[in-house]
Write a structure and sequence with these properties.
Strands 1-11-12-14-7-5-4-3 form an eight-stranded mixed sheet, with no helix packed on it. The chain has one domain. Helices cover 9% and strands 47% of the residues. It is mostly beta strands. β4 and β5 form a beta hairpin. This is THxN family PEP-CTERM protein. Keywords: Membrane, Signal, Transmembrane, Transmembrane helix. InterPro entries: Choice_anch_K (IPR047995), VPLPA-CTERM (IPR022472).
């Protein structure tokens, strides 16, 4: 799934010199869209973004996102949590599950010791959802039905995919006019490529971010061919100067 907003440059003026911390003051989230599913509802339950689906006389399956705010101060070069995603897997009618859902997360932060100057960033995530038939054998995860990984029926799979371009740079200026550039990364959910949730149970993952001083990021080395090209261009330029002289 792709986070739909591209990397942008964000200039933050009038912040403290070389802000070594970041404070999150507010996080909000909403399930903005989904595909397929029956009896689908989206709601804000005391700040938790809830999505529910499925034809059933008991509990519906669903997603939650619990924002974490306020939080901080967060030190640079250290992962910190923005919120927690939860998948609730319950038995529902065949064909009544969703196939994907979109989550919008906005958070407001300030740098260093300057709470009077705050900034807001919004990220979007899409979750691909595989609502498996509970009676399949083997199950979609290739293991037998009622294997420990398929207790009570076949487990369901959730695959979060985030935008590969989630970094933003921002520059702060101190009282002497010196500027310092930081890189802010929303790193995505800490579940790898996907996870499987047992029937009748729940599974969670945290949304992580970090920020770092730009000079601490190692440069990407040029391939050897590029160095040969640069050397060749330099040689051509020198030869041209000799001919002109």
């Amino acid at each position: 799934m792709n986070l739909l907003c591209a990397s942008t440059a964000l200039t933050l003026a009038a912040a403290t010199a070389q802000a070594a911390t970041l404070n999150i003051t507010d996080v909000t989230a909403t399930w903005s869209s989904w595909t397929d599913g029956s009896d689908v509802t989206s709601a804000d339950n005391a700040g938790t973004a809830e999505l529910r689906w499925g034809t059933t006389s008991e509990a519906q399956s669903g997603y939650d996102f619990d924002p974490l705010a306020p939080s901080g101060p967060h030190a640079q070069d250290t992962d910190f949590k923005i919120g927690t995603f939860t998948h609730h897997n319950f038995p529902i009618g065949a064909g009544s599950g969703i196939s994907s859902a979109t989550l919008d997360v906005s958070f407001t932060f300030y740098l260093g010791a300057d709470p009077g100057t705050s900034y807001t960033r919004t990220s979007q995530f899409v979750f691909d959802h595989f609502e498996t038939p509970n009676n399949d054998d083997p199950c979609a995860n290739t293991l037998p039905n009622n294997d420990p990984s398929n207790t009570g029926g076949c487990s369901d799979r959730v695959t979060p995919t985030t935008n590969p371009a989630t970094s933003e740079t921002f520059t702060i200026t101190d009282g002497t006019g010196s500027t310092f550039t930081y890189v802010f990364d929303v790193e995505g959910f800490d579940i790898g490529d996907s996870f499987w949730t047992l029937e009748g149970q729940s599974n969670t993952a945290d949304l992580l971010a970090r920020f770092t001083y730009e000079e601490n990021i190692a440069p990407v080395p040029l391939p050897a061919a590029a160095w040969f090209l640069i050397a060749g261009l330099g040689g051509l330029a020198a030869a041209g100067r000799r001919r002109r002289s």
